[in-house]
Amino acid sequence: MKLNKADANAWIAKPPPDRPGTLIHGDDAMRVALKRQELIANLTGPDAEEEMRITRLQAADLSGDKAALADAVKAQGFFPGPRAVLVEDATNNQAKVVLAALDDWRPGDAHMVVTAKAQKPSSALRKAFEGHKATACIGVYDDPMSRADIAEALSKAGLTRVDPDAQAALNDLAAALDPGDFRQLLDKLSLYKSGDETALSPQDVAACAPASTEADPDEIVAIVADNRVERIGPVMARLWSQGAQPVALCIAAQRHFRTLLTAAADPGGPGAGIGRLRPPVYGPRRDAMLRQAQHWGTPRLEQAVHLLTDTDLALRSSARAPAAALLERAFIRLAMMGKR
């Protein structure tokens, strides 16, 4: 059976008993893995790992041992309870083996959970599960988490009291992060709020949200945007010692000032512009960018973007001036421009 999103969620949350198997396919391996993990946990219950009621097989190995899947499905364990056989990274090359195991399945056998990359409607593997009356075919797509998905994830993490502003920040983060990263964030927040009875606040979210992967470029760009001229030299020296590249720093500055320009030029004002940014900004960084957009204003931000574009071109040309000195001078000019 081919299941829509609602039916798929219901199947995963409460797998029907005595069904042969489930195919979970999608391009995002993390999303597929999360669905597979949830399905197996709900299917086999607690202590399944310790009781050896879960068997894992690599699909590629089935080509050399065609009986391995059928044997695993039929095998009876020492401990009672539902059993599952997980077949990971399946392709159409294993379709015949999987289909044979489905045809030979009988009540009491293990439930087959098969994961695969996104399958076309014409694929033999997908056809096998969609055409079987007692199996499920679940497509996992790269759609952002819905509000219902977010609410369910918060409930599972034990975060039942959430400030409205914190909820808005979490909604933005759910749209920007992979589901696995978002789940890790909720786990971190759950530990962070352990023993704290107050509602989850935006400050809590900001404290636990994943740090930027470009912390050093962000640091110097924030210094320039805040007009802290005296900090440019020391921070730039540290960046050069760490092997930072002038062009990369210039690109980071261009991206930041273009974002500020987009926010400042919004018809609803910088506040509305910041709220429309994608990917979203949140917490202290959002406050800082709003303050910077309001301080610089559209005309000066246009000048700043123009200066950074000229600097980028100069850095990529055969100019004789040292690239590090050229960029540092541009950053100082920018910081001074913002003071006027």
UniProtKB/TrEMBL annotation:
Region (Disordered) location: 1-21
Keyword set, alphabetical order: DNA replication, DNA-directed DNA polymerase, Nucleotidyltransferase, Transferase
Residue runs in coiled coils: none
EC number: 2.7.7.7
BP terms from Gene Ontology: DNA-templated DNA replication
SUPFAM superfamilies the record matches: post-AAA+ oligomerization domain-like
Enzyme class: transferase
GO molecular function, one term: DNA-directed DNA polymerase activity
InterPro entries to which the protein is assigned, alphabetical: DNA_pol3_clamp-load_cplx_C, DNA_polIII_delta, P-loop_NTPase
One of the record's GO cellular component terms: DNA polymerase III complex
Catalysed reactions listed for this entry: DNA(n) + a 2'-deoxyribonucleoside 5'-triphosphate = DNA(n+1) + diphosphate
Family recorded in the similarity comment: Belongs to the DNA polymerase HolA subunit family.
Name of the protein this chain belongs to: DNA-directed DNA polymerase
Organism: Palleronia salina
